Amino acid sequence: MTEDDVNAPDDQAAGTGQELREHEVRTALLDLLAEAGAVTATEAASQLGYSSGLCSFHLRQLARHGYIEEAPHSGGRARPWRLRQQAPDVDGPVEERFGDLARGLEDESWQRWLTQRDEAPSEWRLDEAFSAVAYLTPEEVHRVASVIRRALAPYQDREQRTLARPDGARPVALITRLFPLLPPTADHTDQG
């Protein structure tokens, strides 16, 4: 990423729902459950065009975070899910709750990586985690985010188009969080 990349005009307007689109699998699953009442991971995969493994993972995570629950069923391997009969005890707009869920899943995946890294094949035991602090305006934050999204765009369809994946490709978490560093409040400085 060059300075020219960051300073290029942003062709995606800020606040266009990009955050929600980044969580499209969970959103699609919740929409499907609202429409169908109850579905299994296999049924969701068939209707949404995702893999059943991906749907199963996200259904379990949505359940873990209180959005859905197992639906009554007659036993067997089929595990249908439904929206929770009682809404989860959370406040805030849907986009914010999805953001909280996504950050929780990201943190959980990172912790699992740290504890199981030694079990990965040797060529996959490295990671490219880094952080930086930069002094930016709100407009520049949006431009940096847009540059990162554009850099990742060529790889986004590989979930659906398995033939587009090169040999040896594996799912890799790509997590970017751009937020202002706020000064400590008087309450936090007194707690030392």
Automatic annotation (TrEMBL):
<dbReference type="InterPro" id="IPR036390">
    <property type="entry name" value="WH_DNA-bd_sf"/>
</dbReference>
<dbReference type="InterPro" id="IPR036388">
    <property type="entry name" value="WH-like_DNA-bd_sf"/>
</dbReference>
<dbReference type="InterPro" id="IPR011991">
    <property type="entry name" value="ArsR-like_HTH"/>
</dbReference>
<protein>
    <submittedName>
        <fullName>Helix-turn-helix domain-containing protein</fullName>
    </submittedName>
</protein>
<dbReference type="Pfam" id="PF12840">
    <property type="entry name" value="HTH_20"/>
</dbReference>
<feature type="region of interest" description="Disordered">
    <location>
        <begin position="1"/>
        <end position="21"/>
    </location>
</feature>
